[in-house]
Amino acid sequence: MMTENPFKFGTVVDGLYFTDREDELIKIGSFIKGENHLILISPRRFGKTSLIRKVLNESGRRNIYLDLQLVISGEDFAAQLLKRIYRIFPMQKLKGYIKSFRIIPSVAVNPVTGEVEISFRPGSKDLDPLEDVLNMIDKLGSDGKKIVVVLDEFQDIFRIHAGLDRLLRAVMQNHKYINYIFMGSSESMIREIFEKKNSPFYRFGSLMTLGKIPVKKFSTFLEERLAGITKHYKPVTCTILGITGCHPYYTQQLAYTVWELSGRSADAADIVEFAANEIVQSHDNDYERLWNSLNRTDMMVLAGMSISAISPLSDEFSKLYGTGAASTVFSTLLRLTQRGILIKEGSVYIIDDPFFKRWIVLRRAI
Hints:
By secondary structure, this protein is α/β, with parallel strands linked by helices. 51% of the residues lie in helices and 11% in strands.
């Protein structure tokens, strides 16, 4: 019997915490062995970072991972990449390359953490530092030892620097010893970057979408772990997945909470509902702030979607919830999707966070 909670959420997971994705592991693994670059699209919290890290760990390949959400400018982009290069190559090896940079960075070692701190002179009107750093990464690779560069939330390039997409494509297309993996949570923006004919990155790599974990496989994962705390593990699993809709992050979160509560009421029929409500309560302030950031139409659409399976674009939905013209609702759906409040599965829009959905229902019932 497991004594440690076997569910984990909110961080990169591996080992017994990693759920399924066998097919995706094989597919991504084959990509990085070849010449192609990969574009991976999935909503936030679907586990793409854990998936990529697992593939890279198992491959043994030298790799650099950078989340572009955290990058402030072109100079910062270059500095963050260079900082990660120092983690995998000795400083002595890099000195010769850095001497040829058009702008020499400031490099210092933190005496407490041992971490290398790097910065380029701010205010540069061009992207020379970034170009020099990317070219250095290519020179550090070789046949059979290509470096994998993972750029997460790649759609943020438009925020970082005007024209950054053109510069990156011009530089990256000449690299022979780097496999690039571009990841993003905004499907519309990522598709525009890589599928629009006039985009610099048009068809630069193979596109792959990451969906939810299939019900059957997620059920097996949950049942094997919940069997240690309740004889009713099958109905408990069914209830968990009914609430979360197989969303990887929220399923792990709810299962984790059920496990923690099991010591108090192991076989209580309502343990999943109790756990779900506890999660809602713990995020009450966050949900209230989110709700108050919405406009009236947003609120009407989300309120209707929280209690109805009817398409929000239908006349029936409009009559029931007073949301107005379909064009207005469509604009609302796009805006809420861009904010990550909704996700689109095929042609269907759903509320991403099932506990926010539950919060709406509970608050409106008071």
